[in-house]
TrEMBL record:
Keyword GTP-binding assigned: no
Record's keyword terms, sorted: Endoplasmic reticulum, FAD, Flavoprotein, Membrane, Oxidoreductase
Membrane topology, as annotated: Multi-pass membrane protein
Name of this chain's protein: Squalene monooxygenase
């Protein structure tokens, strides 16, 4: 996988059409799409190394179609992605095969499952290859608001490795897409987040699933368990743990 082109220095006075905070699935795709329209985009990401997470590993057919419309479906290539044709749901030991419906164009609907980090790096690379997109590694510390209208004017950014420096960047539109641990969500969404459960994930090597090219949902007595391939030789298992997550360090999780 080719490296993402990153700007090490930026002029705070530079003019942008929009600023995107967070180079995950939404942020990277948005930056690439707006950049292809000729808009000058500043994409800010705290850490541009490949993420190792258990989120966003099975892209539904609607997501695949969205990538096609954005001209980003090539980001699913060369990451050992597995075609997904539907789900197998197990209840009381009995399986039910639920294939995806046919697309509007008559073709079969197909999802893709993969290593999240590999997909992210391809999206970031696609964004970096758009001439009007600038990628900057740093932490967005503040959304700059107009004191009169309360409209977002831009962001304050601390460059990576330069904690003593803060740079302000401005644009007519700011998109905040910094993930489930967003530091800005509580500023703009009054509803508090309620955590009802946690997923614990692990990988099985060379495991044969009952229904190939399917996501598997096992409805257990206490909570569901999910299984799906994320590579030719790797199968992800996610176990839902209701309530507070037991400590892994103390051994309580086992």
């Amino acid at each position: 996988m080719s490296e993402v082109k990153v700007e090490s220095t930026l002029n705070p006075g530079q003019d942008y059409d929009l600023i995107v905070v967070g180079a995950g699935v939404v942020g990277s795709a948005a930056a690439a799409a707006f950049g292809k329209q000729g808009r000058k985009v500043l994409l800010i990401e705290r850490d541009l190394s490949e993420p190792d997470r258990i989120v966003g590993e099975l892209l539904q057919p609607g997501g695949v179609i969205a990538l096609e419309k954005l001209g980003l479906d090539h980001c699913l290539k060369d990451i050992d992605a597995i075609a997904c044709h539907g789900y197998a749901v197990f209840y009381r030991g009995q399986p039910v095969d639920i294939p995806y419906p046919t697309r509007d164009d008559g073709n079969k609907a197909i999802g893709r499952s993969f290593h999240h980090g590999r997909f992210i790096m391809n999206l970031r690379k696609a964004a970096s290859e758009v001439s009007t997109v600038t990628i900057f590694e740093g932490t967005a510390s503040e959304i700059l608001l107009c004191p009169i209208t309360n409209r977002a004017l831009g962001v304050s950014v601390t460059p990576k490795g330069q904690s003593e420096i803060t740079k302000n960047f401005f644009a007519p539109l700011t998109i905040v897409a910094d993930g489930c641990y967003s530091k800005f969500r509580k500023e703009f969404v009054p509803r508090s987040v309620q955590v009802k459960s946690h997923f614990v994930g692990f990988i099985l090597r060379d495991c044969t699933l009952p229904f190939p090219n399917r996501g598997h949902v096992i409805l257990c007595k206490t909570s569901p368990t999910l299984m799906y391939q994320i590579g030719e030789h790797e199968t992800r298992v996610l176990v839902d743990i209701p309530g507070k997550l037991p400590s892994n360090g103390s051994g309580a999780l086992k």
